[in-house]
Amino acid sequence: MKTPKLFLLIISVAFLTTNICAQNVGIGVSSPLEKLDINGNLNLTGTIKVNGTAGTSGEVLASTGTGLQWAKGVYTINSANYLSISIPEANYVRIDGTLALTNDYLGFNNNFLSINGGVINGSGQSISFGNNCILNGVSFNNVVTSGNNIQFVNCKFTNVSQLPFRCSLISCQITGSNISSTIGNINNSTINNSSVTKIEKIINSNIGGNSTINVYNASNNQFVESVINLAGTFTGNDCDDSQINIQNTVTTNAVTGNNFKISTLFGVISVDLSTSNAIAVNISNNTFVGTSTYPTTRYLRITGSYTGTRCIIKVSNNIAIGGTATGGFVYPQYTGNADLTVNDNDLYAVGGGLGVSNGGLIYVRNNQTH
User: Fold this and answer.
1) Residue 237 carries which DSSP code?
2) How far is the C-alpha of 198 from the C-alpha of 148, rounded, in Å?
3) Which residues make Cβ contacts (< 8 Å) with residue 360, sequence separation at least 6?
4) In sequence order, which ranges of 123-211 are alpha helices (DSSP H)?
5) Nearest 5°: CA angle at 272, between 270 and 278?
6) pLDDT digits over 161-210, tens only?
7) E strand or H helix at 299, and its extent?
8) String of b and e for 138-171 (b: at least 16 CB within 10 Å)?
9) What is the rounded CA–CA span in Å between residue 98 and residue 118?
10) pTM higher than 0.85, yes or no?
11) How far apart are CA 78 and CA 99, in angstroms?
């Protein structure tokens, strides 16, 4: 009698196992549509793994369209929780609304964060970022920021005194700020009524509203009523009533291929030779357009006492149109052994003419006055 029952039990288990393996399994579902179909709550003790991987701290499961993968989490902070929330590195952060700082803030002091949106207001408080963070669409008002390898995109800065050392700005706005730190790169941004102690490179940007910047390399920008203290190259810029002061702290300076429009300035390009350093200055292929309404406009002023032995200044292939340039197109007021070469420039109705002639260490040739 036991043998038939045992046989039937084995057949039944085999059949059930085959049936389950061949079909979907439902819990609380009579006709499961997937391999595991659950109708109800799931209480899990343990670890969820995707393709054998449990993910890392702060990651969440995200759909790929055909499956799941571990992805960075999104931390939302606001005025109510920003002092208490802890954000692990390599995560997304969304600022909801405005954070009004009353003390220095360390909540972003972690690496590889992506911080988006919102406004951060302060009264001189500092915000510390970690390394390799990206901020997008954040507005900063009267705060001091620090960090390493920080990139700002579509951000706004008002009344800001410090940005992270050698940070990058893309499509940003700086207004009413006096920034004492070094900015690495600025691209497609706006600076208005502000000053920046040092910019390593600025391109495709607009600078105006009585701003003053100290820059190593500037190309393809628009300057309006601004002062540029240059220690490097200045190429392809459009300048309206803006002044360039060429610094004597670097070996080579070049002002090439720019357009200058002058109506209210005393000097457009000024070179200070008060040094003993070896200096080479190249001012070439620029266009100067002046008006006759400002009687002391000077396109190029060279001042100072040069005490070194190797100084070369070349002014060539420029075009100057109009303006009553008192002292002439080139107005040398320097002393010392500096070689000045002025050649192949075209002047049209420039008051004072070329302003220089051959003699000593001044070499003049092939210039045209119309």
Assistant:
1) -
2) 17
3) none
4) none
5) 125
6) 999 999 999 999 999 999 999 999 999 999 999 999 999 999 999 999 88
7) strand 298-305
8) bbbbbbbbbbebbbbbbbbbbbbebbbeebbbbb
9) 6
10) no
11) 7
